[in-house]
Amino acid sequence: MHIFKSITALLGTSVLVGALPQKQQTPIVRKEWRTLSKHEKSSYICAVKCILRKPALTPAFDNTGVLSRYDDLIYTHIQQTFSIHYTGHFLAWHRYYLAIYERMLREECGYKGAQPYWDWTLDTPAGNWASSPVFDPVTGFGGNGEFIQGDPNNPFEVPGRTGGGCVQDGPFAGIQDMVHLGPADSVTYNPQCLKRDFSPYFAGRYLGMNQTQLTLAAPDFGSFDRVVEGGPSFEASGLHGGGHYGVGGTYGQIGDLYVSLADPIFYLHHANLDRVWWSWQKLNLTARLTDISGPIFLMDYDNLQGGNVTLDFPLSVGVSAADVTIGDVMNIAGCGTNGALCYEYDQVYTLQG
Ligand SMILES: [Cu+2]
Q: What does UniProt give as the signal peptide span (predicted)?
């Protein structure tokens, strides 16, 4: 975070695309992937490919793996990994981050639509997982990686994993240097294919409507966030881990906490997490537009290292946009008057009684 502050000071404000993600007055509407037309799907994927090729704004360093605008975002996520997960601002940070990605696709790559979301409840139970339209080789993001034998004695093996190698089909198959960064926090150039390691079992267990309802039923933001994020172990997962490990398993990039966004499906998964948060907010909107809590520091739920975040807590996404506060992103349809964001969802989840 601090490194970007000094870079911004060095380069002046010209590298910033603007303080707010969208300047339009009417919210753009995010829709579910499978409801997009064929043309909308291909123009989204085309814009993703454009961002993957656009030169990075992050100043180059020795052996840099930060080559593209797409990498700019991965880099800032790597830098902040331990300060934006298992904290009170986890959802707010990722909400802002996603809006910046959406803006990059629109303003830098000519994409006309809104960021699509992936309602994974539609692809459960486990038996439906691999045939999700999101994984379609022609109208989606391609499917699983080829099967790689794992290590059954490794406690970090994701239960039910079925792949682990390079993706075999779809728009990102066969690209030897699709991913430049990682594994984990490595930022030196390391060309890799995109890997996936589906766990239909994991997805079925943590991404169904039962888990979504359990999440929506949380009485306050603090408990809501903890149900979404779950605990650090596989058994304690929530919706967040369900998507990461259901697609990424042990060996796929999206299962790697640092470089998870190297898989473009990350953005559809997180859009749906954001939609779950917005659905929860809408159950009692007036109160929940300002309901924020949870620790400033990683897993510091008892506040032994610091306090809880508040609405004026700053969020930084590095070179791609100016800092905002949590308060700026509480309303997704603020449109400049009530915050930094200006989008809506075509549908939200409701709490089933
Ligand atoms: Cu993250």
A: 1-19
* Domain membership flag for residue 74: yes
- Decide if 101 is inside a domain: yes
Q: Where residue 166 sits, what CATH number does that domain have?
A: 1.10.1280.10
Ligand 1 centroid–CA 95 distance in Å is 10
Angle at 91 between CA 80 and CA 285, to 5 degrees: 155
pLDDT digits (tens, 9 = 90+) for 157-188: 999 999 999 999 999 999 999 999 999 999 99
Distance CA 105, CA 79 (A): 22
Looking at the domain assignment, is residue 353 inside a domain? no
pLDDT at 2 over 60: no
Classify burial at 298, counting beta carbons within 10 Å of its beta carbon; exposed 0-12, middle 13-18, buried 19 or more.
Answer: middle
> How far apart are alpha carbons 144 and 114 in whole angstroms?
26
Q: Cα of 164 to ligand 1 centre, how many Å?
A: 21
Contact 133, 122 (CB under 8 A): no
- The number of folded domains in the chain is 1
Instruction: State the pTM of this model.
Output: 0.93
Q: How far is the CA of 61 from the centre of ligand 1 (A)?
A: 24
Domain assignment present for 150 = yes
Q: Provide the β-strand partners of residue 117.
A: 32
Compute, in angstroms, the gap from residue 318 CA to the centroid of ligand 1. Answer: 14
Q: What is the whole-number distance in angstroms between the Cα of residue 353 and the centre of ligand 1?
A: 31
